[in-house]
Amino acid sequence: MQINKHVHAIKVPFYIVNPPRTIIERSVYVYLIYGTNGVFLIDTGVASAETAIFDYIRKTERRVEDISMIIQTHSHPDHIGATRTIKGETACAVAMHPAEKHWLENVQLQAEERPIPGFDSLVSGPVAVNRLLEDGEVFDLGCGLKLKIFHTPGHSKGSISILLLGYMALFSGDAIPVPNEMPVYEDVKASVASIKKLMAVSDIRHLLPAWDEPAKGGEVYKRLDAGLNYLQKIHEIVLSLTKKDPEPDPMELCRQAFTELGLPIETANPIAAKSFMAHLKLRNKKSII
Q1: Would you say 125 and 113 are in contact if contact means Cβ atoms under 8 Å apart?
Q2: pLDDT above 90: residue 246
Q3: What is the homologous superfamily of the domain 7-217 according to CATH?
Q4: Which of 17, 42, 97, 203 suits 65 as a labelling partner, its CA being 20 to 30 A distant?
Q5: Ranges of each domain in the chain
Q6: Is the pLDDT score of 176 beyond 90?
């Protein structure tokens, strides 16, 4: 799907088997930036996503060998899954925030520290990082296109959002929670700050998230505001559920919160449980936004 003159989007479906046998269907967007000096890939989806990416590139009359860099919004499995394979095929560089480097270069460490079902089937393997991207950096792609890097932690410590200057297309990774979807973040306070940081950017024309559909025009800032309000809604639910039990069992809290949010209780899992538990650090605040 073409977004503008230079940007293309590819939706990659996948699934996770949540013990004991519940299948959680997911999808993730990866993005291509077509420049005159190469193709720049924002995230790579899960292992095997390279097939869809390579097919799309060929259908749009570019060459797979044109991929010169992969820019990772963060290091979770559904964003780095095909990175090793694509780098192996193209010898492209890989860039990301320094706080995520260790999890991409040592994926087994990530699997131990943040275990999810089927991790090994989602990730093709570790990859060396060639360039580190810092907050506020303007990254010249060398073909009249420039990217501005925003450190937007919360979902993960080294999450970044990337603004294609001039075209004002914002690649937000998983920085913005999606209302009525499973919440996944490590630090809710940081997530709120990151969303507000992006809301302060003027004239964003396209919002290009990983776990939601692309948006444009007036819908962009509505999405940002909706993500912020969803965090507040979750916070109020967590405060209500823990009023009598200030030290809840994480998975029990997760199941109760899923019920309140109307999410399938059988999909409750430890990663989502950590998101709800993160709110307890702010239990003295009624409003977090």
Answers
A1: no
A2: no
A3: Ribonuclease Z/Hydroxyacylglutathione hydrolase-like (3.60.15.10)
A4: 97
A5: 7-217
A6: yes
